Amino acid sequence: MMLCDAILRRTVLSFPFFRVCWHAHPSILRIMSSANSPCLTGDTPTNLTTSDNCSPGFFCPNNDGDHPPQYCPPTKQCQARRLLMIKNICPEPQGLYEPHICAPGYYCPLGGRQKLQCPKGHFCPTGSERPRLCSGIHICPAGSSKQMPITGLTIVVLIDVLILLFILFPWLPTRVKRHMKLPLHVKDAIICTPLSRKRSSQRNSEILETYDGLQKFVESSKRGIGTDAARIQIEFEKLGFTLKGKQGMVNEVLKDVTGSASPGSLLAVMGASGAGKSTFVKVLTGKARATSGITSINGTPTSMTTKLIGYVPQDDIVLPELTVRENILHSALIRLPKGWTRREIEEHVDTLIHCLDLSHVENSLVGDVINPVLSGGQRKRVSIGIELAAAPMMLILDEPTSGLDATSALSIIKLLKSLSDLGVNVICIIHQPRREIFLSLDRVLLLAGGRQIYLGNTKDSVSYFRDLGYSISDECNPADAIIDIVSGDTQRYASPLLPQHEPHSIHSLADIWKGHEGGERASTQNATIQNTRQKFQTDALAAAAAQRGAPQIRQIFYCLLRAWTQQSRQKVGFILEIVVGAISGLMIGLAVYQLDGLLFQGVYLSPFELLSSSTNYTLVSELGLLNSLAIGLAAAAPGVKTFGEEKTLYWRETASGHSRSAYFIGKILSTFFRIGLSSLHFTVFYALLATPIMPFGQLYLSHLLYFYCIYGLACAVSMVVSRKDGPLLAMIVSLIIGIFGGYGPSLSTVKSWHLEWIWRMCPGVSLSQHSVSTYLLGTRPGFLKRTFTPM
Ligand SMILES: Nc1ncnc2c1ncn2[C@@H]1O[C@H](COP(=O)(O)OP(=O)(O)O)[C@@H](O)[C@H]1O
Ligand SMILES: [Mg+2]
Question: Which of 314, 338, 560, 730 is the most buried (most CB within 10 A)?
């Protein structure tokens, strides 16, 4: 300082440089001693401009009209630093008249005569012309070169504490649940005593006979089904289903099945395993396309009126995360006629639950085969309940009694019989019914090897086989005897009347039915069908269908509520999703942490470009790529899970008239919270470590949108591939989308291939471009807005 003072007084007082001498770097003093050159190295400087203009973001204390900004060849140390990829700004001026970039933590107001420390609550990255306000809650002491926004972190901590509270203190959600539960007066309205509360020895068919809950449910269903005009009569003629195997092998799974199923009757489809029973109902309901034959409803060849038909599949397709009641109630809320009030629907559902003997487990989760909560039989009854709750006009059930104990099986059949008495057309596949069940069936369709062996009244079936020469005693279970006969196990039933004492083959039994009795019966049936065609009006059916189902907006609401309930019970998956988001953000943040907030450095604006340090053109677009990949990994798997896990349920519901769009909108809305939280955790940790210049809100929004895109993409992938392949495929698709973000190959390259449109379709391009434009072009106008074109 003393030397500086002496020089000031003795020699070059005219130099404006001396106004800042006391603040300048000590090396300036060495410049003073190099008598002939204003450069530190003693080399000849190059004039950058003829005026004394200082570019924004630069510090030019010594320049004036006589001494325009100059470039000085740098010293070895400075040159070495300028060639580094990070922290490569040489803070020492290399010459008396050389402008230098405003250092981090300082700002240099326009004109470049002052270099001021960044005030508290602001941050000043390298090349700042004015201090920037730190956003939200922050840590920005005086002299900050970057902002440390902790708004996001504060929000995240608060949310995480709340989530932990909900998990650690389960009574919180229980209280909420209590609000959703049935009001007390509705429970009181059910008069019948649940079967479970009765002693098991009493649980026999006599109790079922007097079980007034059944009557109550039937009464309730009557309102939904209606009693008059609309009925469903289904006719099928020569129905066939053929599969083509390897080397042109043809497998006739179903052949020439003809007949009808009428409203008010309970038709049982019987046969041994592999007889074609499930295939028959699938073809009948249009779930499998018949390769031959015609199906018609009320005399008109048409597809099924899905809203009026209930189909209970062989496998129990229920939501394991919901309770028994929630599963059944959802179906009722969506599918019952519009006029029903919430209270009426709840009463109807409760009566049904009692009739299905599920009241003691109504608030238990259904579970699945891997995590069982209910028994297989109880789950089956839930599956049946889902259809019965909708009061269908036609009900098709694939083995509803399999897996149930004898009493429960009988109670189910009695329920079905009561519904058929109301005018419901019930078709039910039964594997091997016990005697009481068999005798309570109205009609039987017997299949063997895909061929029709018999279709007619149950009571006539035994005499039909007796007429063929089989001996069926009155003591034995006729159902067992008939199944044995059509399966070829005829030894016990052979009688002297049997032609040549040889049992019939399936083909001969089918031919006998077709040619002899069958032909006659078929023509009788056809006559009946002709009569009923006048009777059952399709218009009435259409009107009944139009009344069915909650309005679209309510369906969306119910689907949303259901999805929320589901998610709230998948705690581990939910927490994992958030943790994965946080870890991904943390990792990417760590990858750029060493850059100390200097995410990209370009070439200085003209005319100061000569002063530029080495540039890393690839860094920002590479960061876009890294972000895309990390988000792809964090969001793809949960996206697949959202839909892929319940594809079968979706098919079941939409096949029975649920609105597809309501399901999807409900699902999508329900995932917003998850996506929002996961991307918030990603952004918070990323922002803390990478300290980007972009405002936190903007950064969050760009990440949120990309998360959302990947979620949607994974969801779409899970729809078209099988459940086990979904995660892998979604992962690879999100990787491709990430790479197609414009980094490698770059947009300028693909433009020359005329394939830019493919890249533009990928959301990664938008994410990268947003990063680039905000990091570089939008926020640092004086410093870096120059020749850089990363993509
Ligand atoms: N999509 C299919 N691919 C191959 N075989 C099938 C298909 N559908 C049915 N089958 C075969 O057709 C036969 C009848 O099946 P199914 O109708 O399920 O019998 P079940 O009477 O036991 O319900 C079985 O042998 C089954 O293997
Ligand atoms: Mg089957």
Answer: 730
